[in-house]
Amino acid sequence: MAGAKIGIALGGGAARGWAHIGVLRALIEAGIQPDVIAGTSIGAVVGACYAAGQLDELDRFARALTRRKVFGYLDFNFAGTGLITGQRLCDRLLAHLGDAAIEDLAKPFTAVATEIGSGHEVWLSRGPLVDAIRASYALPGIFRPVRINGRWLFDGALVNPIPVTVCRAMGARYVIAVNLNTDMYGRGTVLPEIAAREVQPVPAEPEPETGKNGRAALKLLQRQLFGRGESVPGISTVMIDAFNIVQDRIARSRLAGDPPDAIITPRLSGIGPFEFYRAEELITRGHAAAQREIDDLAHELNLRSRLQPRVAVPG
Fold first, then answer.
1. Cβ neighbours of residue 228 closer than 8 Å, sequence gap 6 or more
2. Nearest 5°: phi and psi at 179?
3. Per-position b or e across 60-92, b if 16+ CB within 10 A of its CB
4. How far apart (Å, rounded) are the C-alpha atoms in residues 71 and 50?
5. Which helix (H) or strand (E) holds 166?
6. CB atoms near residue 224 (< 10 Å)
7. Of 207, 296, 289, which Cα lies nearest the Cα of 25?
8. What is the pLDDT along the chain (315 residues), one digit of tens a residue?
């Protein structure tokens, strides 16, 4: 498949981003090796680990997550600009990626972020890799924004949820996009005649019991953030789901203006945005989604490689 420089654009989608691992594995197994990688939000996390040769380590980390471990990584912060500082996640990334610089990676990589205030789309293709990842996944209101070169940055999904344009700017002649939200929000429609006849009040939370170790208060906080079953969503679910709906609408507009050469859409309905502990299932679904497209991808890439102009070698 030489001759067609392949780019892969990994979109945002919170916990559903573990599906990117399965997608990349299926492509690699089929001999389709992306030459350049662009990622937004969780797509930046997976894309950076792939570019740094750490995809196996990320796979092991994701599969080992449990509900308790996920909650343990959330260092709550009630005095700043986000509910979570993100320092524990940053420490984990640093443990495996160290002080690697983006420009020193084996494969070209770019993370997309958004500048607070101006709304500028910022492409992070140089400098510390971990800082770029943190800026790209800094979901507004959830994670604290990151300051890079005097700019406060947060989640790139607000401006470029699936960075096809970035891959093309990096020189990719064939771009594969991975959209994690089509299965959830792509069928959205208008419901014009809904009457508020059956309004059900949300049951009040019981007051936490006072304890020496504060476990009751911690459990209350956990219910408020993650909800109390399917009938009562938590704060994080409401915020991330609202963000993902906006992200989906922006993505559809961006992809219409600059469509990828191929698109992979894992079937991820029924998986919540904070269910990072379902990595096994998400990776499997991502792998299956890529396998469904492998034959078409291989055919198109082989065709394009044959159509590439031959360069005369001086004799």
1. 234
2. -105, 115
3. ebbeebeeeeeeeebeeeeeeebbbbbeebbee
4. 25
5. helix 164-169
6. 14
7. 289
8. 455 699 999 999 888 999 999 999 999 999 999 999 999 999 999 999 999 999 999 999 999 989 888 877 776 665 565 556 556 666 777 777 888 999 999 999 999 999 999 999 999 999 999 999 999 998 887 788 899 999 999 999 999 999 999 999 999 999 999 999 887 655 556 666 655 555 555 555 555 555 555 565 556 555 555 555 556 666 666 777 777 778 888 888 899 999 999 999 999 988 887 888 999 999 999 999 999 999 999 999 987 765 554 444 444
Could you give the CA distance from residue 80 to residue 1 in angstroms, rounded to a whole number? 49
Say which amino acid occupies 306. Answer: R
**Angstrom distance (rounded) from CA 211 to CA 213:** 5
- CA-closest candidate to residue 273, choices 10, 12, 16, 84: 16
Catalytic residues: 41, 155
Token couple for 45: 């996390």
pTM for this model (two decimals): 0.82
Q: 36 near 171, Cβ under 8 Å?
A: yes
- The CA–CA distances, whole Å, from 12 to 89, 196, 214, 229, 273 equal 17, 33, 35, 25, 11
Give every CB contact of residue 291 below 8 A, 6+ residues apart in sequence.
26
- Find all residues with CB under 8 Å of 217, minimum gap 6, and list them: 208, 211
